[in-house]
Amino acid sequence: MAGIFITFEGIDGCGKTTQLGMLAALLAAHSIPHLITREPGGTLVGNKIREIILDPTHNKLSSKTELLLYAADRAQHVFEELKPSLEKGEIILCDRYTDATIAYQAYGRKLPVKLINQLNLIATDGLAPDLTLLFDLPVEEAEKRMSNPNSLRSKDRLEQEQRDFHQRVRQAYLALAEKFPDRFRTISALGTSQEIFYQVSQVVIPKIKSLYPSLNNYVFC
Ligand code: TYD
Known about the structure:
Rossmann fold; binds thymidine-5'-diphosphate
């Protein structure tokens, strides 16, 4: 049985990781087999690549080097985790995938889209998500969330980019959603996590319930 591949996308600070966790909890509560994963860093090797990419002291890393590191992380992830998981019939919840490379490296860093599409194809062997949830949020709002004094974490190399970089990333995501309406669902990331999760469940449950009858009686709330 083939599984279902769901990706979570959006600018830094949009809250997608919280939503991924809430959806994973729902799947677990219904005993639905799933994989929680992320890019960069979905494998042991990928975690090492992630450290290199995000380390704020690596300020000499060129845009092309950065792009190739994301591609290397992805190639390993597809091979080691994503394909085997789909073959087992699991639902994959993946925090970022190929759309992030288009948004950040093509529109953020201004590298050629054509080059990135080619690299994505090499890294993925053509494995595309079945569903992509785009959590859309104004950059100013995301900045407010990330500057929350309760957050102990310091900003990584990508998060340290200027506001116009993140504006370009947001616009790129919205353009991708328009270009691929069958695959993308755009969800407003304004509101409480419960309000946002209501929208997530409205999109995801109908998509997966034919495979998992335990969801037939799910009550949206
Ligand atoms: P992550 O730490 O997971 O950030 P967040 O929790 O905000 O998603 O992601 C690492 C950073 O990597 C994030 O700023 C987006 C960036 N990124 C790219 O620039 N290109 C890519 O292909 C991917 C997968 C991520």
